[in-house]
Amino acid sequence: MFNQRLCDNCGKRPAVYYMMNVINGVATERYLCDECKQKLGFVKKQPNLDFGGFFSAIGSPFGAYDAKEKHRVCPTCGYGSGEYRKTGFLGCPDCYEAFADMINPALVRMQKDTKHVGKSPNEFYSPEEAKYNELLRQRDEAVEKEDFALAAKLTEEMKQMKGGEQK
Amino acid sequence: MSENGIVISSRVRLARNIAGLPFPSKLDSERSLAVTQKVYGALGKAREHYSIIRISDMSDLQGEALKEMHLISDDLLHGNKYAAAIMNKSNDVCIMVNEEDHIREQCILPGKKLRDAYVKINEIDDIISSSNKIAFDPRLGYLTSCPTNVGTGMRASALMFLPGLSLTNSLERCMNAVSRFDLTVRGEYGEGTSSESCLYQISNQKTLGLSESDILANVTAAVEQIERNEIAARKALLAANGTALRDNIMRAYGILSNAYALSGKEFMQRMALVKLGIYYEFLKCEDRDALEKLIADVKPASMMLKAGKIMDGEERDVCRAEKVSSVVGKVVSK
Predict the structure, then answer these.
(1) Chain A CB within 8 Å of residue B89 CB
(2) pLDDT tens digit sequence for A33-44
(3) Spans of all domains in chain B
(4) Which residues neighbour B268 within 8 Å (Cβ) at sequence distance 6 or greater?
(5) What is the pLDDT of residue B56?
(6) What distance in Å separates residue B34's CA from the closest CA in chain A?
(7) How far is A67 from chain B (nearest CA, A)?
(8) pLDDT band, very low/low/confident/very high, at B173 (cuts 50, 70, 90)
(9) What is this structure's pTM?
């Protein structure tokens, strides 16, 4: 009564894995056998997995590879931009800032928006930290609106806050 | 399980990281242990008691059994060696420490209860966040090891039993109808199961630019629409091929009640039909939760862990058939 469907990739072995993504109104469906599922990178073997095959199948969600691009490292953890391109994973929270130019275009493609609108742990931050975060958010907004005078003013305020903390 | 047995379980997962530390794949042993202690320490303030199992202390069988129960992931078992799982007594809350992110908080509840699952895990999240500084950016939200989870760090999913849509080959059409919600639909059938189990997991695709309430509302709306389509497909299936369908269901019931040996694949295939038979009221089952529990209990590692010994494939098939007949035997034909 059940028809055994064959793998979309090899067309030979029976499919044991089904996946459908509906992104921006377009549905893509895949039936894969175990072997092709592994070959295309749908199985994670270790945290630092190689997404090479997977990306060749679906495009490059974390940014297109540019041969002229310089290899950079995150100043906090030493993680390399090349590693991010290869695996899709980051080394530490500061990598988001270090590789912002690579991550942000990918977020535009992958996510609903590039601005967080949900829960924040701010209620557990000190009033100073919460204020600093708010200034940072306002500065990002000013940069986006190309109001550089306001952005510079906010940056100065943030610097003063940081300087104040160090004293 | 929901009244009609279509939504089997609801799960909400939140990904979090401790500020100022590299993500688990780059974390040294000393700091990995410190993360575990910080998270477990924070749970002392929780209303329920939590126990911790470190991956290094876990037997292979125990690890596989927890994976079969969807409480822990393959990444947790084979990644950072200082990883751990923290669980409450009822096993509906499980916190994975040092998996892909430092903290993966998840709550799984039976039936269509996404909002309840979120409320429960959000409370745990508040407790953990109150004693730990969480990596958070005002613009990007919760910072995660992979940018696919950044923002809310939230994945809300429902495990659905969809034999009507599978047998009428209308799953794709149904998914197109719910395409305004950005979703991922997965049918995963590891060892001991097969595509004939008709089980699909529906989850949100995006985590940034939507609030937690938006995600819950989207997944719930999609699940409810798929549920309505599944009911319509089941009606169509019965109308088109009632005799053959009932015959197949009753044969499956006969085999599950009497077989001496059952492979995992055959069990899942026939079980899908028996569950469909209960829905059509060809069969009467007083305790449907026992049927769902049976599906988890006859997976290879869970079965061997309970038996306290390693069994080969043949032994497992005999053991599975015995367990299945004792539960399905209580289902009566009408």
Answers:
(1) no
(2) 878 877 776 654
(3) 241-333
(4) B189, B192, B193, B194, B196, B197, B295
(5) 86
(6) 16
(7) 23
(8) confident
(9) 0.79
